[in-house]
Design brief:
Elements lengths: L19 E14 L2 E8 L2 E7 L15 E10 L14 E12 L16 H6 L1 H4 L3 H23 L3 E2 L17 E3 L7 E3 L5 H9 L4 E9 L11 E10 L3 H20 L9 E3 H8 L12 E3 L1 H4 L5 H6 L5 E8 L7 H13 L6 E6 L2 E3 L8 H9 L7 E8 H18 L10 E5 L4 E4 L4 E4 L25 E6 L2 E8 L4 H10 L4 H16 L5 E7 H9 L29 H7 L8
Parallel strand pairs: 3-5, 6-9, 11-17
Antiparallel strand pairs: 1-2, 1-4, 2-3, 4-5, 7-8, 9-10, 10-22, 12-13, 13-16, 14-15, 14-16, 17-20, 18-19, 20-21, 21-22
This protein binds aspartic acid.
The site of aspartic acid has 8 residues, from β21 and β22.
């Protein structure tokens, strides 16, 4: 490169007129205006218009979009009628004196255009072209600012950033571990961290007191639309705290982030809502609170109801029947109601009962079972003529979750959400365990290191009502963080291992090292981890996590740029003393 830039493509203004400058960048477009060529030169910082006479610059015959060039030229003011108010450099242009071709390009697979309509897979395959587009670049910039603000806030609040290992002891902590076979220790493997959970708790035993880290975590899960195999967390832990202390740190951080990046004030402290309240009011442990349409209890009316589904649901353990009023819903077609019912079913409800309140009286699947008292209960719940009332019945969690999804469905259909609002809410007092029907055992709702809010029952006792010091931070119906006050006494930790079905030998084998940490004076402690990708996605208003990740995997877990995962060659397998079962 002979000509190194003296200005970026976003820098020149009227006060530079007359200056000799050098710009380096990519050619966005070339336009021919009566023999003169107008080039838009682009870099990370902006666009600058360059004017060149092809007769004087023969190299221009080789220059097309996405070529990389250096331009030596003079800044001059554009004629008034040619000024472009949409660009920061729109008042000037560069009169080319010399043009150096730094690199040519193959024909790009798609145009570097804000409104790119190319399919995502092609964009990700050619991410180096895709990221030259302003919206993708803006997402990367936003993410960089987010990381910076998080680090700044945590550091200002007295937290120390400590890096924890990526190659670590494999530990089943919920999802499946990624394994890294050891060459030096044949037959053994490291696990990639699903989170630095046990290391951060160990750091509390080390006396670090306030730890944080922006770190990568890995979970070998079946992919869903909003999941990635590797993701980024803001991980933190602090000693000698109650849950309110963790909340205060996060509130200070999030209010700063929102002020700086969303240009919106959010008020702290954030509202708190128990898990029970979130489930019964919104049918979700991550409630979207930007609209009402809250659920109401119909259990009293359902007990002994002529409608068998309701009566039977109330006889189940933790059986419930809840309803929801859809304002103006009596006007919905059968097809629209069927769509809502399909949502309920896809989230585990057996069905969705419904009744329309019309001028001719109640109509719909359960109308004939509703007595005057039942109708009075609907009125008390806010239903009036012209409305639709929908119900789900069954066990507490599946029935409410399904109705909660129907609520979100109608919220979308009726356009009830003001997307400018940011509603943060803390969800507290989660159940500590949940029943795994397939394995016929209780498992930890969050993870096994969360402290119970009350003493544990004897082994084999009913764990379904036990609550934990476990909390989530929810924003606009998205879980953006999850954490807990931890167990710090080794006896309690051993009891929890036993309750989830680990034998003492298994507990020793997998977590013996960690029990030892607790045995040597671990302080009371608690923390949380925020999902950085998810927060960036919400701030960017993006539809998918992939939009805010530089080199994401696609929905099948493949990296479209590098085509990983790939098959190791025979030598690599041999060194590990491993062989694929088939194919390879
Ligand atoms: N390690 C937990 C997670 O990744 C978060 C926490 O409890 O701090 O979900």
């Amino acid at each position: 490169m002979r000509h190194q830039r003296t200005k970026t493509c976003g820098e020149c203004r009227l006060n530079h007129v007359g200056e000799l400058v050098v710009l380096n960048g990519w050619v966005q477009a070339v336009r021919d205006h009566g023999g003169l060529l107008f080039l838009d030169l682009r870099d990370r910082y902006g666009f600058t218009q360059v004017v060149a006479d092809p007769a004087q610059h023969s190299v221009l015959s080789e220059v097309g979009p996405e070529c990389v060039i250096a331009v030596v030229g003079k800044v001059r003011a554009r004629p008034a009628e040619a000024r472009n108010t949409n660009r920061s450099t729109g008042d000037i242009e560069i009169e080319a004196i010399e043009i150096e071709l730094l690199n040519t390009t193959k024909v790009p697979p798609f145009e570097v255009d804000d409104e790119c309509r190319t399919r995502e897979e092609l964009r990700l395959e050619h991410r180096y072209v895709d990221m030259r587009r302003r919206p993708v670049l803006a997402a990367m910039e936003l993410r960089s600012r987010l990381n910076y603000l998080m680090r700044q806030s945590m550091t200002e609040q007295g937290f120390m950033e400590v890096e924890t290992p990526i190659l670590m002891k494999t530990s089943p902590e919920g999802a499946r571990d990624f394994l890294v076979p050891s060459r030096v220790h044949p037959g053994k493997a490291y696990g990639l961290p699903q989170s630095p959970q046990l290391f951060k708790q160990t750091l509390m035993a080390c006396g670090i007191d306030k730890y944080f880290q922006i770190c990568k975590c890995f979970r070998d899960e079946d992919l869903r639309a909003d999941r990635q195999l590797e993701f980024t967390q803001l991980d933190m832990e602090m000693s000698f705290v109650r849950q309110e202390d963790v909340f205060a740190v996060m509130e200070r951080l999030m209010t700063t982030v929102w002020r700086e990046l969303a240009r919106g004030e959010v008020a702290a402290p954030f509202p708190r809502m128990t898990w029970d309240e979130a489930m019964t009011r919104f049918g979700s442990d991550k409630p979207e609170t930007r609209f009402g349409m809250e659920l109401f209890d119909f259990a009293d009316r359902a007990r002994g109801s002529g409608f068998r589904v309701f009566a039977q649901a109330m006889e189940l353990p933790q059986g419930t029947v809840r309803g929801m009023v859809v304002k103006g819903g009596a006007a919905l077609s059968r097809k629209q109601i069927d769509e809502a019912e399909a949502v309920a079913k896809s989230y585990g409800a057996g069905g969705m009962a419904w009744v329309k309140l019309t001028a001719e009286g109640p109509q719909g699947s359960i109308a004939k079972f509703l007595a005057a008292d039942d109708l009075a209960a609907l009125t008390a719940a806010g239903a009036a003529q012209g409305d639709l009332v929908v119900f789900t019945a069954g066990r507490f969690e599946p029935a409410l979750n399904a109705l909660g999804q129907v609520r979100l469905h109608f919220g979308r259909v009726q356009n009830l959400v003001d997307s400018k609002l940011a509603h943060f809410v803390w969800i507290t007092d989660f159940p500590m365990f949940e029943w795994n029907e397939d394995e016929k055992r209780f498992e930890a709702k969050h993870h096994m290191f969360t402290a119970p809010s009350e003493p544990l029952p004897p082994l084999g006792g009913d764990l379904s009502h036990l609550k934990a010091s476990l909390y989530d931070l929810v924003l606009n119906g998205n879980e953006i963080g999850s954490g807990s006050i931890r167990i710090h006494q080794p006896e309690v930790q051993a009891q929890v291992f036993a309750h989830v079905g680990l034998t003492p030998e298994q507990a020793q084998d997998k977590f013996g090292w960690f029990l030892r940490v607790l045995e040597y004076g671990a302080p009371p402690h608690g923390g949380i981890a925020l999902g950085v990708d998810r927060i960036a996605m919400i701030l960017a208003g993006a539809a998918s996590l992939r939009e805010v990740i530089a080199f994401p995997k696609n929905a099948s877990g493949i990296c479209p740029l590098t085509q990983s995962p790939s098959a190791p060659d025979t030598k690599q397998w041999d060194e590990l003393q491993l062989r694929p079962v088939s194919g390879g």
